[in-house]
Design goal:
Elements: E1 3-7, E2 12-17, H1 22-31, E3 38-42, H2 48-59, E4 63-67, E5 70-74, E6 81-82, H3 84-87, H4 97-104, E7 106-110, H5 123-131, E8 135-139, E9 142-146, E10 154-156, H6 165-175, E11 181-185, H7 191-202, E12 206-208, E13 215-218, E14 227-229, H8 234-247, E15 248-254, H9 262-270, E16 274-278, E17 281-285, E18 294-296, H10 308-315, E19 321-325, H11 334-341, E20 345-349, E21 352-356, E22 365-367, H12 371-382, E23 387-391, H13 394-397, H14 403-408, E24 413-417
Parallel strand pairs: 2-15, 3-14, 6-7, 10-11, 18-19, 22-23
Antiparallel strand pairs: 1-23, 1-24, 3-5, 4-5, 7-9, 8-9, 11-13, 12-13, 15-17, 16-17, 19-21, 20-21
Helix pairs in contact: 1-2, 1-7, 4-6, 5-6, 6-7, 8-10, 8-12, 10-12, 11-12
The structure holds ligand EPZ.
Length: about 425
C-alpha cells in the first residue's frame, strides 16, 4: 500500500485547478443507465471511486469509454444486479438502485456495509421507492427492489439525522420514469443533487425544485442521451482552502463555484483569513495562526460534514479553544486519535470535539482511515515539525485527484512512496 511522506514547514503559494465533483459524477454516471442512448459526461475526476462506478456500469452491460476527463456511456441492454465484490468497495454504488428500478422495474445491489464514519443505512431510500409502488426484500446480503409498475407518490425523506443526499438522488432517478407526479419533501439540497437534476432534465426528465427541500418530478415515458459537465468539487476546493489557511502565503483555486462553499469560506473568514472571489477563482491569504471557532456540521447550505476533519487540522493550532459538533455522522472522528499523536489537544464528548490550540504539531507516522480524515492528516503535516507519514493512502485516492502533486505544485514537499 502506498504511503505519503509530508515534509512540514513549507509555505504554499500559487494556483491550483480544482477537479470535477466526485459526489456529483457518481450519481450522474449511474443516471446514464436510464437511457439506451449514449451520454457524454465531462470533467469526470480520475478517482478510484469513479473507477468502481464505471466497473459496475460495465458489469451491468453498458458500453463505457473514458478519454481523460470525458466518459461516454451507452446502456443499450442492461442487467439488474450489481455485484458484491465491487459494491463492497464503495457504498455509493447504492445509487444504481434508482435508475435500475426506474428503467427495468427491478434491481439487486449488495447492501452497503457500514464504514469508519458510521452506520450507512438505506431505509430512507427504500421508503422513497415504496412511495412509488415498489417493494423490497433483503436476501443473502443483497437488497432487491422490484415493482410491477412505478406510480408517482409523495414522500418525506427526512431521517433522524436530517435529509439524505443519495436517498434523494435515488428516488429522483426512479421517479423520472414513473407514471404521474412525485413529490419529495425534506429533500437534500446539495449542489450535487441540483447537478444530477440538471443532467436528468437534459435527458428529457421533468424535475422542478432541485436545490430546495421540495422536489417535484413529472414522470415521462422515456429519456434520451445527453451531454453534461460535472460541477467543480466543492469539498476538494474547501480542502485546498484549508491547506492555504494552514500553510499558505497566498493560494488561488481555479474552476471553483464559490457559491457552493459559502459556509466554508465564512468559517475561514471568521477564523481570521482573507478570502477573495473573482469569477471561478477563489484566493485565500494566510496571516499566521487561526482564531478559534465554534462549528456545527449541517445539511447544505450549512457547514459540510465532509470538511469537519480538515477544520480539526486547522483549528489544532488556533489561538483559544474551538468546539466542533458533528450532527450528520456523529462518530466521524477517526482523525482525532491520529492528530493527537502529532501533538494536537483534542477531546471528544460524543459528537462534540473540544480542540485546544497548541503551539506546534510534530510529524509522526499516522494511519489514514476514511477519505476526508486522510486528507486532513496530510494538511496537519504541512505545518508540523518534521515528517508525517500517512499510511493507507488509497483512502485519499478515492476522492482526491493527485492531491500530492497538486500540493507540491503549490510549494509543499510531499513524497509518495510506492509500497
Ligand atoms: C453523501 O453520502 C456523500 N457521498 C457523503 O460524502 C456526505 O458525507 C453525505 O452525503 C452527507 O453530506 C456521496 O455523495 C457519494 P446521507 P450519503 O444519506 O448520501 C443517514 C465523502 O467524503 N441516513 O446524506 O450516503 C446517514 O446515516 C462522502 O465524499 C439514514 O439514516 O449520506 C447519515 O447519518 C462521505 N437513512 C445522514 O442520514 C438513509 O436511508 C446523512 O446521510 C440514508 C441516510
Amino acid at each position: 500500500m502506498d504511503k505519503i511522506l509530508v515534509h512540514g514547514g513549507q509555505s504554499l503559494s500559487g494556483t491550483v485547478k480544482i477537479s470535477g465533483s466526485k459526489n456529483s459524477a457518481l450519481p450522474i454516471l449511474a443516471a446514464t443507465l436510464l437511457t439506451k442512448e449514449p451520454c457524454v459526461i465531462h470533467h469526470v475526476p480520475d478517482l478510484s471511486d469513479i473507477h468502481y462506478m464505471l466497473q459496475i456500469l460495465s458489469h451491468l452491460g453498458a458500453q463505457v469509454e473514458r478519454a481523460s476527463g470525458v466518459v461516454t456511456v451507452q446502456a443499450e441492454k442492461i442487467g439488474t444486479e450489481a455485484p458484491y465484490e465491487i459494491v463492497r468497495k464503495m457504498r455509493a454504488s447504492v445509487c444504481v438502485l434508482g435508475p435500475l428500478l426506474g428503467r427495468e422495474k427491478e434491481a439487486t445491489v449488495s447492501l452497503p456495509g457500514g464504514c469508519v464514519i458510521g452506520d450507512r443505512p438505506i431505509d430512507l431510500h427504500l421508503k422513497g421507492f415504496e412511495a412509488l409502488g415498489a417493494m423490497h426484500r433483503i436476501e443473502q446480503g443483497n437488497v432487491k427492489v422490484f415493482a410491477g409498475q412505478l406510480v408517482g407518490g409523495v414522500v418525506n425523506l427526512r431521517g433522524k439525522l436530517g435529509p439524505t443526499v443519495l436517498g434523494t438522488d435515488n428516488v429522483m432517478m426512479a421517479a423520472v420514469l414513473a407514471e404521474g407526479t412525485t413529490v419529495i419533501d425534506s429533500a437534500a439540497a446539495e449542489p450535487e443533487v441540483v447537478d444530477l437534476a440538471n443532467f436528468l432534465n437534459a435527458m428529457g426528465a421533468k424535475i422542478e425544485g432541485a436545490g430546495t427541500r421540495r422536489i417535484v418530478i413529472e414522470g415521462v415515458k422515456e429519456l434520451h442521451g445527453a451531454e453534461h459537465s460535472v460541477i467543480p468539487d466543492r469539498i476538494e476546493a474547501g480542502t485546498f482552502l484549508v491547506a492555504g489557511a494552514i500553510a499558505g502565503k497566498e493560494v488561488t483555486l481555479k474552476r471553483v463555484d464559490a457559491s457552493h462553499l459559502t459556509a466554508v469560506t465564512d468559517a475561514l473568514v471568521r477564523s481570521g483569513f482573507a478570502i477573495t472571489v473573482n469569477g471561478d477563482s477563489v484566493t485565500i491569504r494566510g496571516n499566521g495562526d487561526p482564531t478559534a471557532l465554534e462549528l456545527t456540521t449541517e445539511p447544505y447550505p450549512g457547514f459540510p460534514t465532509d470538511m469537519q476533519a480538515q477544520m480539526c487540522a486547522l483549528l489544532s493550532k488556533a489561538r483559544g479553544i474551538s468546539v466542533i459538533t458533528e450532527t450528520i455522522f456523529p462518530q466521524r472522528y477517526m482523525h482525532v486519535s491520529e492528530m493527537k499523536r502529532m501533538g494536537a489537544d483534542i477531546s471528544l464528548n460524543g459528537p462534540t470535539a473540544i480542540i485546544k490550540g497548541v503551539e506546534r504539531l510534530s510529524g509522526a507516522p499516522v494511519m489514514a482511515s476514511d477519505l476526508r480524515a486522510s486528507a486532513a492528516l496530510v494538511l496537519a503535516g504541512l505545518k508540523a515539525d518534521g515528517v508525517t507519514e500517512v499510511n493507507r493512502v488509497y483512502h485519499i485516492d478515492r476522492g482526491y485527484e493527485l492531491i500530492d502533486e497538486k500540493l507540491n505544485g503549490l510549494g509543499a514537499n510531499i513524497e509518495r512512496m510506492k509500497a
